[in-house]
Amino acid sequence: MMPIYIIGHKVLRQTGADIDKDYPDLQGLIERMFETMYESDGVGLAAQQVGIPIKLFVIDATPYADEFPEAEDFKRVFINAKIVEYLGDDTVLNEGCLSIPGVREDVVRKDKVHIQYYDQNFEYHDEIIEGLPARVLQHEYDHTYGILFTDRLSQLRKTMLRNRLRAVARGKFRASYPVRLGDKNTVDRYIFPQVPVAK
Predict the structure, then answer these.
(1) 121 Cβ partners below 8 Å, 6+ apart?
(2) Hey, is 55 helix, strand or coil?
(3) Which region, left, alpha or beta, applies to residue 60 given φ > 0 means left and ψ of -120 to 50 means alpha?
(4) pLDDT surpasses 80 at 196
(5) Residue 197 forms part of a structural domain
(6) Which helix (H) or strand (E) covers residue 180, if one does?
């Protein structure tokens, strides 16, 4: 397993770089990310969460197929993804994140997106994805731009969560997977971004 980087680490606030098919050991990295995601009981994982600021994330929403049929066999790799348009209706769902263990909050997201991306074989895709996969996709896509789900909460909820997030950033949590904390002298700087998050 690769260690999961925890809120307060600066890499989680870095916008990922585009990569090409010659990125070193790309297939090995993808395999390790899937393995880390499964071992951590996640359904999505972005490269920033394992300390690598590139535009790459993996998803396997299959565990939620009983409740969300559209998640059946939804296992994908997204490279250099670009959401062209957010579509559909606003929906609210409770979200968590491997990088913020023990914290869950209701988050508003669109239930459909038009996205362009490359898969693990660097084949190009241009498609509309909806339902739960669209939500997981948006969560992981945000990571590639240095955005965490807590950034999408109201200012009031952010204020109420600030001390709890500070505690997480300092390692006051339990996790069943290896983690990597940020520099204890700078974690506060990276709990919330310095500029508003685009909705």
Answers:
(1) none
(2) coil
(3) beta
(4) no
(5) no
(6) strand 179-180
Q: Where are the beta strands (DSSP E) in 27-141?
A: 44-46, 56-60, 75-95, 105-118, 124-130
Q: Which two three-digit tokens encode residue 138? A: 């948006």
Pick the catalytic residue from 70, 95, 123, 140.
140
Rounded Cα–Cα distance for residues 107 and 159 (Å): 16
Is residue 101 situated within a structural domain?
Answer: yes
Kindly state the tokens that stand for 192. 């919330």
**For the chain, how many structural domains are there in total?**
1
DSSP 184: T
How much is the pLDDT for 45? 98
Residue type, 36: T
**Do the beta carbons of residue 30 and residue 58 sit within 8 Å?**
yes
Range of the domain at 43: 4-190
Confirm whether 195 is domain-assigned: no
Digit-coded pLDDT (tens) for 110-166: 999 999 999 999 999 999 999 999 999 999 999 999 999 999 999 999 999 999 999
- Is-contact 4 36, C-beta < 8 A? yes
The sign of the dihedral angle between the CA atoms of 175, 192, 16, 114 is: positive
Q: Would you say the pTM of this structure is higher than 0.85? A: yes
85 catalytic residue (yes or no): no
